[in-house]
C-alpha cells in the first residue's frame, strides 16, 4: 500500500480509468452522514451530476485505490481504513493503494480526525462499500460464466466458481461490473469469519515514513513557492504599534515584509510576515526585525493569578450540566463526608512536527496543503474568510507529525492563505518550535472541588464543580451562560447511572489565554480529579479500591473489564508493601482501566515498575494499532503528570522549547502491558481513551505506597 498526494475527484476518476476500464463506487450523501446514504457507481454519479464519495476504484489490473477521508497523524487510519474495505472486498492489502481525500464535507461527511472517531464514525460505510463492490464483481463473473451467482465466491482478488474451480481476476470483471446497479442490501461478514479485520497486520505507512517517501507538510513544494515566518506578539492579545523593517529588506533572499492578521476564536492575532526565497533566509531576517507591541487593554496574567482565580470561582454557583436526586439533602445526612480539591496544569500540544502550511491563492481560487486534521472545516472557513465559493477552495492533507487536536484549528491555514493572497504567489509558512509552544492554544488548566457522602460503604451523594476556561465560550457570539458540556466526560456512564443523588457543574474562568482540544479533551483533566477522588472514597469506606469500583460499576461490560484488570495485575495477590493504584475512565465510547505499580529505590526515589492497561473499545480493526495508541497515550499522560506544564508570566507563555518543556525519556517508562476486551459492542475510540486513567492510577499507587495524596499536577517523582 502506498501513499500519493491528495487528489481531487476529477483526478481520482482519471486515475481510475473510468471510461469503462474500472469499477469505482462510493457514497452519495443526500444528507450529511446519514446511515441510509446510497452507494452508486462513478458512471451513475457523472450522469446525475452528483458529488460521489469515491472510496473504492478497481482497475483492469485488479489494483484497488481507496480514498481515505480522514487524516493520518500516527493514529492508524491509513491502515484501518483499507483493512476494513479489504476484508469485505476480499483482497489482500498488497493489492491496495490509498490516497488522502480532499476536504469536502458534502462528499465525505465529517472529516474531522478528532474524538477518536475514524473507525467508530465510518466503519459501517466502509464495510458496506467493500461488500457492495464484491457483490457486483460476483454478479459480473456469474453472468460471464452463465452460472448462478450463489455458486461463486470471492477470495484474494479473484472470483471462483465453486463447482468447477474456475477463477477470474477482479481486473477482468471491472468493465462489466461497472455497468451494474449496486445492490441496496448486502450481507456483511460475521466477526468469526474475518481474515483481515482483527489481525495485527503491520502498518503499511511505516516503510514510507522510514524511507522518506511519506509526504509531510514541510515536504510540499510548488513551482515558484516562497517561504515565510511570522513574528507574532508574545502576549496573546498584543497588537502592532510600530515596526522597523529597514534592515530586513536589505538581507539576502528577502522578498516581502507584510502585516498579517490571524483569527483566533473571537480575537485577532497580529504579526509581521517575512517572506523569502528559502526558510533559512526568512528566519535570519526575522531576527533583524524591530517591532514595538501594544500590550495595553488586556490582563497580563501569571500562573499563580490564574489558579487563584479558579479557586475563587469555585465559591460561585456553578452552571449545571447534569443533576439527579437531591445532592445537598443526601450529603447533609451522610454517615461519612469527604471533600477534596484537585488541580491540573495548562499544557502545550508539543507535536513533533510544528505547524506549517502551504497556500496558493490566485484569482478566485485557493489551494491549501499541510498537516490538517479537519480539511472540511478548513474549506468552509477559508471560503467564508476569502469570500470565495466553497467549491473553489481545495484543501489537501499530508501526513501529520502528531496533531492532538491542535491541527484541527483554522488559524494557521488562514494565516498562510492571507499571506499568499497578499504576495500573489504560493507560500509555505513555517512555525518554529518556539512559535508552536508559546502561541497556543493550550489545554486549559483546571481546579476541581469534589464532595461525596458515604452510607454503609457506598456512595450516597456525589458532587463535582470544575473551574476552568470553557473552550466553547471563546467562539464569536458564544452564549456564555451555557454550561461546559464536557463536565462529566471521562467518568464511566455506569457510575452516574448507579448513584441517585449527584451534581456536576462548572464555573467558566475568564482569561485571555486561548485554549482548545488536547488529546482526550476534558477527560484528561476530569479523569485525574474523578478517579483520584474515587480512590479517596474507597479508602474512607475501608474498601479495596478495585472492589469499590466494582461495587459502583455493576453493568456487565464494566465488570468484565474489572475482572480482567484484576486477573492481569494479580491484584488479589499483590504484596502488602507494594504500591498499586487503579483508575477506570470512559472516553469516546471506550472504557479503559489502568493499574500502576510503584516502588522505592535504594536512594529513596520512586520508580514505576509496571503499567497494565485493559481497553474495551468494542468492535475493533487492528490490535497492534490499539496497543500502540494506548502506549502513546500513557507516555503522553506521564509527561503531563510528572514532567511538563505551560506556565505564564506577565501574560506570556514561559516554556519555549523542549529544554524547558521536558518530555519523558525511555528510561522513565517501563514496559506497558495492553489487553483488549473481546465483545460485540459498537466500536469506540482508540487514539485518546488510554490517556485519562493513567495520572490518577499513578497517584493512587503513590498513596498506596507512601500514604501521600497528590492532588496537584504535575509533580516531581523524585521529590515525593
Automatic annotation (TrEMBL):
Aldehyde oxidase/xanthine dehydrogenase a/b hammerhead domain ranges (all copies): 211-297
InterPro entries according to UniProt: Ald_Oxase/Xan_DH_a/b, AldOxase/xan_DH_MoCoBD1, AldOxase/xan_DH_MoCoBD2, AldOxase/xan_DH_Mopterin-bd_sf, N-heterocyclic_Hydroxylase, OxRdtase_Mopterin-bd_su_IorB, TAT_signal, TAT_signal_bac_arc
GO MF annotation: an example: oxidoreductase activity
Record keyword Iron present: no
UniProt KW keywords: Membrane, Transmembrane, Transmembrane helix
Superkingdom assignment: Bacteria
Transmembrane annotation, as ranges: 12-31
Record keyword Transcription present: no
Coiled coil segments of this chain: none
NCBIfam families: TAT_signal_seq
Protein name: Xanthine dehydrogenase family protein molybdopterin-binding subunit
Record organism: Niastella caeni
